[in-house]
Amino acid sequence: MRDRAALFARLARSHFRSRFRLGAREQHTLDRHGPHVIRAHAADFVATRLAPANPPDDGRQTPMRNHPVFIAQHATATCCRGCLAKWHGLPPDRALDAEEQAYICDVIMDWLAPRHDPTAVPPDPQRSLF
User: Fold this and answer.
1) Quick check: pTM over 0.85?
2) Nearest-CA neighbor of 106 among 62, 45, 42?
3) How far apart are CA 47 and CA 24, in angstroms?
4) Most exposed of 45, 100, 110, 112 (fewest Cβ within 10 Å)?
5) Which among 25, 27, 29 is positioned nearest to 127, based on CA atoms?
6) In 3D, which of 19, 22, 43, 39 has the Cα closest to residue 120?
7) For 117, what's the count of Cα atoms within 13 Å in the CB-facing half-sphere?
8) Domain spans of the chain?
9) pLDDT (tens digit, 9 = 90+) per residue, 48-71?
C-alpha cells in the first residue's frame, strides 16, 4: 500500500485514470446519500468483488457507470486485482484482509470527498440503493 498523496499524484499523471468524472446519476447518488452511506456501499463492493483471492470475472467485475463508487474505483485503480497489484502493491493471489479493504475504501472516499456537495440534495435516511 502506498502513500496516498504520492498515489494521487501518480494517478493524476495517468491519462486513463485522470479522465474519470461522475455523471449526473452518480453525482446525484453521492449527494443524495452522503459519504457515510456511500462508504458502506464501497465496503460492500470491495468485500464482495475484490477481497476474495480469485474474484469472479476479475478485470471485469467493476462497471463503468451507475454508482459513484464504480467511477471512483476506476479513477483510483481499485477496480480489479490486477490494478490493485500494479498501483497499490496488493498481491492478486490471496484474499485481502480487513486493513487492506479499509485502505481501498479510504482511497475511494478520498477521491469522492471533494466531489460531494452536501447542499445539492438533502440525504434521505429512509432510502438506500440496496
Assistant:
1) yes
2) 42
3) 26
4) 110
5) 29
6) 22
7) 8
8) 4-115
9) 999 999 888 887 888 888 999 999
